[in-house]
């Protein structure tokens, strides 16, 4: 056996003995992955490199150390590519935590512990210099013990689990880009682990063809990605092949006579008719060298094509453009269309249309917006599948965005589950997300459906423009959706486009500064109590906890309990909800109906009573038929646990409330999983300290403070 192997084995045994001793004293060392702890700067000290020999545990080495009166400076520094390495903790021989950046008597026994996270991998301890400066690691174990013999700078070295740059190789597969048949992009993945593919800006061309999608196999049998969508390239590189669709017959005279009629407009060509009979109708980008920009009313009538491919150049589809085309199943189109309505297709054409493929043909506009934060969720869902762990997915509105701490819950569950906090926006369609998620979960996974007080959260199938904002940089989501389950697709798309084109172009590497890499909301104001408010509703919700949900978004003062137009029955879309959730259970996952956090200020007088809350629990169980995860009463919060929004609202949890809500969800899950929940106080080992009467922020854990009893 090699000498280094023997040393490591001895060290591991000694560390285990040390840990057992400390645990018996109730002094288990801290391990966490929270935040960034910058080492304190000091003056008057000199960094000299101490002996790198691993010293045996102080309880068994049998050595006597004289009281020299010498003080040695000690400091642990963190280094590496990560912006969130694991926080390092040091413990003295008596089990008390050593303060980083101070002096201790010579020969003081020091034990250090660090942690890892999904994004950060620990690569070793070094003394005097970080590993990136050529120093050799003194230990690669998460725990390390030694005697402090002289001034010591100890480095905890980390690296990113996921690469900060991803190489994307595009094989043009019969096409070209400025004479090249292979194009390589290096894209920024320092925040997102799944890079976005190129949007179809016309750089990739093939005469007589339209770019359909990218694929991991040249024959199109691999993983398919619509242009502009996220690709699963977690290892830092991916090869993609352009998949082309040949233009249908009759759009040029190169091989046959014209089967299309058109007229010229000021901006290009408008199609007025087509007499072909191709099973796949592929409308080319140009006719006689002019861009195809519109399709006129009645242009495509009573045809039997099953797939329709629209060109990236298209800008207008008039009402009644497609009539009687009842064989249509799959539609490919780009996001460059400016004018379209639900009446572009007639009822017969809609009848069997189920597959929608949306390509980005323009640069993103909402990548850095609050709405654009959705793509962090999609990014994380793909990462969860790649992790190989069982997943717990929360599907809700912004209440989960502000109310679940992903990293904290994973720690509570001993890292055995990969948590996806899929909180989005109250006025987007939850069932679209849920239907997509059903394709990524399986046996042993858990989906917690926790809708907010909104018809869109309770299953309304009428799509909204906000949904398209959410999906702008995640177009592949549409590949998992049966559009027959929804209505107003083109209406919502048109409303989205009417605002989008006035926005400045962005980049796929952009992201909203208030989202962390788990998709949890973070900002400075979120860390404080909602001081200055009282027991008065300052939000946009009136919560009745009965068989009605609010159907509008407006200030509470403008909502009348006596106005029936503002409320809708909670069971109106229950069958839609059950059908989509059924896809999740069919995939083998378990669905629990959870409850979103609610400020007590928003409750009506009746909703404040235990009887009404119990009745609401029963109503939910009877209406939707899924097992409940706790009670609505478990998620009602005093105003001090709410975050004061820019609009004066107080309906989102702050970091204190988020910690409590996350812990509450954890206890519910433990009951379902047959686990014994850890006590709140045990989580001082996660770096959370008790909050005093002043309610000032002490330390945080992944943007999440915890208040102990």
**What is the domain total for the residues?**
4
Measured by DSSP, the beta-strand proportion falls in 15-25%
Strand order of the largest sheet: 10-9-13-11-12
Strand count, sense and barrel status of the largest sheet are: 5 strands, mixed
The tally of helices reads 11
Number-wise, the strands total: 34
The helicity comes to 10-25%
What spatial form do the alpha-carbon principal axes imply? Answer: globular
Ranges with pLDDT <50 over ≥5 residues? 1-60, 681-709
Task: Give Rg in angstroms.
Answer: 30 Å
Whole-number mean pLDDT: 84
Return the structural class.
Answer: alpha/beta
Q: Alpha-carbon distance between the termini? A: 51 Å
Named at the architecture level, the CATH assignment of the largest domain is 3-Layer(aba) Sandwich
Q: Under CATH, the topology of the largest domain is which?
A: Rossmann fold
Overall CATH class of the largest domain: Alpha Beta
CATH superfamily of the largest domain: SGNH hydrolase
Structure in words:
The chain is 18% helix and 22% strand. The chain is an alpha/beta fold and 709 residues long. The protein folds into four domains: 3-160, no CATH class; 165-246, Listeria-Bacteroides repeat domain (Immunoglobulin-like, Sandwich), CATH 2.60.40.4270; 260-359, Ribonuclease Inhibitor (Leucine-rich repeat, LRR (right-handed beta-alpha superhelix)), CATH 3.80.10; 371-527 and 571-599 and 608-638 and 651-673, Rossmann fold (3-Layer(aba) Sandwich), CATH 3.40.50. It has a five-stranded mixed β-sheet, with no helix packed on it. Strand 14 (260-264) and strand 15 (269-274) form a beta hairpin. Residues 1-60 and 681-709 have low confidence and may be disordered.
């Amino acid at each position: 056996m090699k000498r280094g192997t023997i040393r490591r084995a001895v060290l591991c045994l000694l560390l285990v003995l040390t840990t057992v001793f400390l645990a018996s004293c109730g002094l288990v060392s801290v391990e966490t992955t929270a935040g960034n702890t910058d080492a304190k700067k000091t003056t008057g000290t000199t960094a000299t490199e101490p002996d790198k020999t691993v010293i045996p545990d102080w309880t068994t080495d049998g050595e006597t150390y004289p009281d020299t009166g010498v003080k040695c400076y000690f400091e642990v520094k963190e280094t590496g590519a990560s912006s969130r390495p694991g926080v390092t903790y040091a413990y003295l021989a008596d089990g008390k935590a050593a303060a980083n950046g101070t002096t201790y008597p010579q020969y003081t026994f020091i034990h250090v512990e660090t942690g890892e996270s999904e994004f950060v991998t620990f690569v070793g301890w070094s003394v005097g210099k970080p590993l990136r400066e050529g120093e050799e690691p003194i230990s690669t174990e998460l725990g390390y013990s030694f005697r402090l013999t002289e001034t010591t700078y100890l480095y905890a070295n980390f690296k990113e689990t996921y690469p900060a740059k991803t190489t994307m190789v595009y094989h043009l597969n019969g096409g070209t880009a400025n004479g090249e048949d292979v194009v390589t992009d290096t894209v920024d993945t320092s925040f997102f682990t799944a890079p976005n593919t190129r949007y179809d800006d016309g750089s990739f061309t093939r005469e007589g063809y339209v770019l359909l999608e990218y694929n991991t196999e040249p024959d199109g049998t691999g993983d398919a990605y619509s242009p502009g969508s996220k690709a699963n390239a977690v290892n830092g590189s991916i090869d993609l092949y352009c998949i082309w669709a040949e233009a249908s017959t009759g759009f040029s005279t190169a091989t046959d006579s014209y089967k299309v009629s058109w007229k010229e407009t000021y901006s290009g060509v408008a199609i007025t008719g087509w007499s072909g009979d191709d099973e796949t109708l592929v409308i080319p980008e140009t006719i006689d060298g002019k861009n195809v920009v519109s399709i006129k009313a009645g242009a495509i009538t009573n045809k039997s094509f099953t797939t329709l491919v629209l060109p990236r150049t298209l800008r207008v589809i008039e009402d009644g453009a497609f009539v009687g085309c009842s064989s249509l199943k799959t539609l490919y189109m780009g996001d460059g269309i400016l004018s379209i309505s639900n009446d572009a297709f007639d009822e017969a054409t809609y009848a069997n249309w189920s597959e929608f493929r949306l390509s980005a043909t323009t640069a993103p506009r909402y990548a850095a917006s609050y709405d654009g934060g959705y793509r962090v969720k999609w990014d994380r869902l793909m990462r969860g599948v790649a992790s190989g762990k069982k997943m717990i997915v929360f599907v809700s509105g912004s209440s989960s965005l502000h109310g679940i701490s992903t990293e904290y819950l994973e720690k509570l569950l001993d890292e055995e589950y990969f948590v996806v906090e899929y909180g989005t926006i109250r006025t987007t369609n939850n069932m679209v997300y849920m239907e997509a998620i059903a394709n990524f979960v399986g046996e042993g996974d858990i989906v917690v459906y926790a809708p907010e007080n909104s018809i869109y959260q309770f299953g309304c199938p009428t799509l909204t423009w906000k949904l398209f904002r959410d999906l702008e940089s995640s177009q592949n989501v549409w590949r998992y959706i049966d559009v027959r389950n929804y209505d107003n697709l083109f209406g919502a798309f048109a409303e989205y486009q009417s605002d989008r084109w006035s926005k400045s172009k962005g980049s796929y590497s952009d992201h909203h500064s208030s989202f962390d890499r788990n998709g949890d909301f973070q900002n400075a104001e979120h860390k404080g109590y909602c001081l200055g408010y009282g027991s008065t509703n300052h939000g946009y919700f009136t919560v009745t906890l009965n068989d009605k949900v609010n159907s509008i978004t407006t200030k509470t003062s403008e909502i009348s309990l006596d106005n029936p137009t503002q409320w809708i029955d909670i069971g109106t879309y229950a069958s839609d909800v059950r059908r989509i959730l059924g896809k999740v259970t069919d995939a083998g996952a378990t669905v629990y109906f959870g409850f979103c956090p609610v400020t007590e200020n928003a409750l009506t007088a009746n909703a404040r009573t235990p009887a009404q809350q119990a009745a609401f629990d029963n109503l939910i169980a009877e209406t939707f038929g899924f097992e409940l995860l706790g009670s609505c009463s478990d998620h009602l919060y005093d105003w001090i646990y709410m975050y004061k929004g820019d609009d004066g609202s107080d309906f989102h949890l702050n970091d204190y409330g988020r910690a409590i809500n996350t812990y509450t969800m954890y206890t519910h899950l433990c009951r379902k999983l047959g686990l014994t929940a850890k006590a709140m106080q045990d989580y001082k080992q996660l770096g959370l300290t008790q909050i005093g009467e002043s309610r000032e922020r002490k330390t945080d854990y992944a943007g999440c403070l915890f208040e102990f009893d």
